[in-house]
């Protein structure tokens, strides 16, 4: 029980001491005299330089992203994959003046997207090489134009909160009162973007959790079936079920038919906000779905899943999560502002998700280790059994 002398939120002795030490640090770092001294003193000079670089990178981040966008749009990485080339040889292929080509190449090299080679030539850098064949990432780079437009005045966005934005128009289900009524033309663009970026997420999920142990999987918000098609390759005996808005489900049905999966794949159209979920699965997956919605919608969805699964069912949640060690900027800075601009949802910590899951009746909840938490973390929740 809390008391007047010991309130629940009062910091302990250790926490209070840490707070005081951090306050001293903040005052020192804010002092121009201290910063000047730290930049010259041999033992603190490396730290001062790293922090100065980190702060400048925050200031220049938009420029860096636009260098990447230019490389993607000009297909520079594909051209450099043919072998190192001079700016003179690249300029006509990029349809750029020579001085602009040189500027872009130097900028790309500074960001490790390209790399200076012998004879004044440029080849792929380690980050540029990673972009090769990564259609999902390239699609996201192009897509960010909408986000940057919505963030042109970030203070206005923060003050307005959930308002009409370019991203909100791109993800129409976020604000739609009746998302099940969206037509095919309205859902095609965002469905294609999700499909393009889905393979790298699927690799993380399927590497973290053995779906083969189940007999039937239901993917809620499964888009055009890209994730389930990856599942089908990993677990050839697993029955597949997909639930999404009717216009999206229609595209999934067509893809399953083209891939020869119609006999083992069932597709149901509907909205989980208003329609009952399909039953019969012992594994339900929510891949980049939960963070799109507010707590009330998520809790109602979790309860509907618990009812559809039955006592021995398992729920798997996969998405970037807030507070993930080593991926904090993605979970909190990137998705925090992205979802605000989108007009719906928020990033959640595993503990916040666990609290909602327990309210919905899930008893056994644990994290599954993924190789790249920046792409997705995986939370596994079970109703009855622990195995």
UniProtKB/TrEMBL annotation:
| GO molecular function terms attached to this record | methyltransferase activity
Entry's SUPFAM superfamilies? Answer: S-adenosyl-L-methionine-dependent methyltransferases (SSF53335), Winged helix' DNA-binding domain (SSF46785)
Q: What is this protein called?
A: Methyltransferase
PANTHER family, from UniProt?
Answer: O-METHYLTRANSFERASE CICE, PUTATIVE (AFU_ORTHOLOGUE AFUA_4G14580)-RELATED
Which residue range or ranges hold the O-methyltransferase dimerisation domain?
A: 57-132
Query: Where does the O-methyltransferase C-terminal domain lie?
Result: 183-363
Which terms under GO biological process does the entry name? methylation
Q: Which Gene3D superfamilies match?
A: 1.10.287.1350, Vaccinia Virus protein VP39, Winged helix-like DNA-binding domain superfamily/Winged helix DNA-binding domain
Q: Does the keyword 4Fe-4S apply?
A: no
Q: Does the keyword Phosphoprotein apply?
A: no
Keyword list (alphabetical) reads: Methyltransferase, S-adenosyl-L-methionine, Transferase
User: Which Pfam families does the record match to this protein?
Assistant: Dimerisation (PF08100), Methyltransf_2 (PF00891)
List, alphabetically, the InterPro entries matched.
COMT-like, COMT_C, COMT_dimerisation, SAM-dependent_MTases_sf, WH-like_DNA-bd_sf, WH_DNA-bd_sf
